[in-house]
Amino acid sequence: MWETSGQWGQLLTWWLLAVALGLDAFSLCVGIGLAGIRLRQVMRVSGTIGAFHVMMPLIGVALGQVLVPFVGSLATLLGGLLLSFLGLHMLWHASRGHAQPTGVYLSGTGLLLFALTVSLDALSVGFSLGLLAGSAALAVALFGLMGFLMAGFGLLVGRRVGRWLGEYSEAFGGLILVAFGFKLIVGG
């Protein structure tokens, strides 16, 4: 299946993007976990975030494919700018020390809004995926899996570890997004 180095490079790129998106979910979930959360809630929250990490990029892919014929290389530039902006926002957020418990009500509408907020960056990543060659289905499956795993892990870590970890993971995720955004801006 993965016969060429280009395909392996594409898989590595998608995996790194999945990690970057997952680190954002991880950092926010560490804060939620610090406030205390039951194991049943961990599964519900991480499952919802994983589902949103699949749905949002698919929406972005659809928008990216619709817009490509009209805006061409400008769309790649916009995708790169969006990724860079989100990464810089994550870095700014981490530097300001905002990785604290959010007090989000984690059921019903509160859970859906939290998952939507955590997954908004996946929308712009999906937009960028619509501009790149390859299997978007594999990419969004990786995003969903990594979002689920890292959100759950963040919630569990948050139950046990101090607040400092969330800031560092969010900053690392921001650096990865900025790097991929820069790659799109300078050379697609």
UniProtKB/TrEMBL annotation:
<comment type="function">
    <text>Probably functions as a manganese efflux pump.</text>
</comment>
<keyword id="KW-0813">Transport</keyword>
<keyword id="KW-0472">Membrane</keyword>
<feature type="transmembrane region" description="Helical">
    <location>
        <begin position="74"/>
        <end position="92"/>
    </location>
</feature>
<comment type="similarity">
    <text>Belongs to the MntP (TC 9.B.29) family.</text>
</comment>
<feature type="transmembrane region" description="Helical">
    <location>
        <begin position="12"/>
        <end position="37"/>
    </location>
</feature>
<feature type="transmembrane region" description="Helical">
    <location>
        <begin position="131"/>
        <end position="156"/>
    </location>
</feature>
<dbReference type="GO" id="GO:0005886">
    <property type="term" value="C:plasma membrane"/>
</dbReference>
<feature type="transmembrane region" description="Helical">
    <location>
        <begin position="104"/>
        <end position="125"/>
    </location>
</feature>
<dbReference type="Pfam" id="PF02659">
    <property type="entry name" value="Mntp"/>
</dbReference>
<dbReference type="GO" id="GO:0005384">
    <property type="term" value="F:manganese ion transmembrane transporter activity"/>
</dbReference>
<keyword id="KW-0406">Ion transport</keyword>
<keyword id="KW-0464">Manganese</keyword>
<protein>
    <recommendedName>
        <fullName>Putative manganese efflux pump MntP</fullName>
    </recommendedName>
</protein>
<keyword id="KW-1133">Transmembrane helix</keyword>
<feature type="transmembrane region" description="Helical">
    <location>
        <begin position="168"/>
        <end position="186"/>
    </location>
</feature>
<keyword id="KW-1003">Cell membrane</keyword>
<dbReference type="InterPro" id="IPR003810">
    <property type="entry name" value="Mntp/YtaF"/>
</dbReference>
<keyword id="KW-0812">Transmembrane</keyword>
<dbReference type="InterPro" id="IPR022929">
    <property type="entry name" value="Put_MntP"/>
</dbReference>
<feature type="transmembrane region" description="Helical">
    <location>
        <begin position="49"/>
        <end position="68"/>
    </location>
</feature>
